[in-house]
Amino acid sequence: MRDARPRSTIKPLRAHWLMLALFVALQIADIITTNRALTIPGIWEANPLMAWSQAKLGTAWWLPKLAVVAYLCVAAACMRRRWPMVFAVSVSGLAVLGNISHFSCPHPLRSGQYPGQEPRFLFQAGE
């Protein structure tokens, strides 16, 4: 049996829910990759609100983030425009990629492979 809705409204609705699901998945990935990245010496939280949340709440730092994500999901379900959700998914994806970049190729000085060795720069001062 066919759906009673016109065909033109089905595809945008699917795209909207797909973007919403992608946003939630990226938020979960952000929490996991942030926790992993923060175990690396020399890495800190760049978002001042999340850094404050980590300092005050410890391992439960992600609870305020969960509340904001839940609010955004409800607000996104009420919006007709797509660009805010596209923007939120893009920013979330960049945050996850930034976190992954910290532990995909460790820096030798950060990981302690060469203790006592000074970092080398392409151009030294005075050259």
Task: Name a few traits of the molecule.
single chain, 127 residues, mainly alpha, 5 helices, 66% helix, globular
Low-confidence stretches: none
Number of helices: 5
| Shape label | globular
Largest sheet: none
How many beta-strand runs? Answer: 0
Give the mean pLDDT.
80
Radius of gyration computed on alpha carbons: 21 Å
Strand content: under 5%
Can you give the helix content as a percent range?
A: 55-70%
Derived from helix and strand composition plus strand pairing, the structural class reads mainly alpha
Distance between the ends:
78 Å
Succession of helices and strands: HHHHH
Structure report:
This protein is mainly alpha-helical and 127 residues long. The chain has a domain of 87 residues. It contains 5 helices and no strands. Helix 1 runs antiparallel to helix 3 and helix 1 runs parallel beside helix 4. The chain is globular, with a radius of gyration of 21 Å. The N and C termini lie far apart (78 Å).
